[in-house]
Structure formats: C-alpha cells, structure tokens
Design a protein that fits this description.
By secondary structure, this protein is of the alpha+beta class. It is about 55% helix and about 15% strand. The strands form two sheets. Strands 3-4-6-5 form a four-stranded antiparallel sheet, with helices on one face. The model is unreliable at about 1-5 (pLDDT under 50). Belongs to the RRF family.
C-alpha cells in the first residue's frame, strides 16, 4: 500500500487556495467603493531615496472622515513625489497638499462607475476561481500519479472527493465575497 502522505500534500493544496483568497481580498480592498479606506492607497509606491517604496512607509495614512483619506508625509522632500504617485495611480482622485499632509477627497460614485467597479470585482473573482481550479488540477494530477504508483482505488476516490470538496468550499467563498463586494459597490 502506498503512503498517501507522500503522494498528495493536502495541506499544501489548502495553503495555496488560501493564498488565492488572500489575493482576492487584497484586490477587493483596492476597489474604491465611495467610502474612504486606508487600503485603497496601500498599493501605491513612491520613488523615495532611489527606490520604489510603499506609500505607507513614507507617511502616516489616516481616514479622518468617511469621504477623506489623509497621508501625513514624514520627509517634506517626498511630498511632490507622493502626490505624483497618487495622481498616476489610476485611483481617479485629485490629491490636495496642505503643509506636509496630502488630502484625498473621495468623490461620490455615479451609477456608471459603480457598474464598472462591479465588473472589475467580477474579473478579480474569476481570477481567484481560476487559481483555485489550477490548485485542484495539481491535486488531481498528484492523485493520478499516486494511483499509478499503487494507491488503492478506495483511497484514490476518497482523496479525489476531499480535493473536490475543498475546491467547492473555496469557490463558494469566492462567490460569497464577490456578492458582498458587489452589494457594497452598488450601495448609494
């Protein structure tokens, strides 16, 4: 009888599916929903001291009110570069400099932009589903190999079902996260 622990690493499959979910949550966090959030500026990098540096490492990000993000830049010489990075980030927000603070007023989203963002969220979710299905395929390939190396039919079937159940669970989580995000985006 083959040692199934060597043939299929179930924990690795689970870890990789968790990674797909984590990536999806980060992508969803970067989508602007009309409400201010520090996570919407976290992907922005600023040219600082000769290298690209995350914006949260050149200043303090705050959300003083529901429609405003402020970034207090620590080194005044980076103020212009941070403003430029925000303008070029594709957030569609015009930064306002006030001393060493950059204010980002979050405009109200119109219906067309909301629908656009809901589609983008759907695209992100589909990428996560594809990643999860790829992990499933890897697991099934491991099982196929294990079966050809002498894994009993019953074990093969049991592990195949386990991998499929895990896949279904994660695909369901992606669908639920998408539904929640789309509701949040469409909320006026």
């Amino acid at each position: 009888m083959a040692d199934t622990d060597q043939d299929i690493d179930f924990d690795d499959l689970k870890r990789r599916m968790d990674g797909a979910m984590t990536s999806l949550r980060q992508e969803f966090a970067s989508l602007r929903t009309g409400r201010a959030s520090a996570s919407m500026v976290e992907p922005i990098t600023v040219e600082a001291y000769g290298q690209q540096t995350p914006i949260n490492q050149v200043g303090t990000i705050n959300v003083p009110e529901p429609r405003m993000v402020t970034i207090n830049i620590w080194d005044k010489s980076l103020l212009g570069k941070a403003e430029k990075a925000i303008r070029e980030s594709g957030l569609g927000i015009n930064p306002v400099i006030d001393g060493t603070t950059i204010r980002l007023p979050i405009p109200e989203l119109n219906e067309e932009r909301r629908k656009e963002l809901a589609k983008v969220a759907g695209t992100y979710a589909e990428h996560a589903r594809v990643a999860i299905r790829n992990v499933r395929r890897d697991g099934m390939d491991q099982l196929k190999k294990a079966k050809s190396n002498g894994m009993p039919e019953d074990d093969h079937k049991m592990w195949s079902n386990e991998v499929q159940d895990l896949t279904d669970k994660y695909i369901g989580a992606v669908d639920k996260a998408l539904e929640t995000k789309q509701e949040e985006i469409m909320q006026v």
